[in-house]
Amino acid sequence: MSKIKVLDISLANQIAAGEVVERPSSVVKELVENAIDAQAKKITVRIKDAGRSFIAVEDDGIGMNQEDAKLAFERHATSKISTTFDLFRIKTLGFRGEALPSISAVADVELITSTGEGVGTKINVSSESYEVEDAPLRKGTTITVRNLFYNTPARLKHLKNDYIENANNLEVMQRISLANPSVAFTYINEDRVVFETTGRGDLLEVIYNLFGSFNASKMVEVKFDNPDFSIYGFIGKAEIAKSNRYQMITLLNGRHVFMPKVNRAIIDAYKDFLPTNRYPFVILNFKIDPALVDVNVHPSKKEVRFSKEEDLRKQLLNLIPATLSKEDLSF
Question: What is the pTM of this model?
Fold first, then answer.
């Protein structure tokens, strides 16, 4: 008898969930990115108990018909890529088709969606049931996640305290909002509105809404464009320098990513404007041809590779000091 067996689909989904769904903020990130890919212009996120018991993401995107809604819970079912060629020109935030099946493997999930035509669809998925029924005809999608990690007690036990998990949730929402200033976000924690953005496409306004008027008033706009990439964002004056690197926010094609070489270049560019124990507050969005970017490096998509990284690094070493030198920024 063969010793190698094909895994049961529910077990395979739980294994996949271990990579995709690390904590409540992973769920928030995946669901909000799906809403953005669905062309939503208004997204509301609600959480309770730091996301352990309740996460809901409501959008006004294109919605799904019943057939697509059912397929959304199948692994590697996606509308975002269909060929190998597409994998090397990814223009969406999601593309693997792993989010919903991974989340529903470790939580109770309710999906309500409609394209605005025909009839809406409601799907409830849990360990014991899979129910599909008609729903109200409101264009868009609402996904509610309850009892996260109820069937993986080890994962639940090793979540951090509410303060840390709430901080992670807030960080995810802030970075997604900064990457998408043309989308109106409302973030609600325990029935309290934490922040709202207008969706008017004004990045400085988003910075104001997230970090307050003082920080926004100390930011300086930067712009650069060439055939290979463009840079747009705001860099902070010395008054709002930080003791850590958490506010060095780099965005690539609308996605928050970590780029060690680029981050190092930003720090080096500030060397004549900040002491060695302080780090700049910067929010920079880089636009690069998707064909030059590989986002399929890590399940979280936080790490990317792109072929023009060295050129981008050199440009930042010139652009940032040139911009700062026009301001009275030093301590």
Answer: 0.86
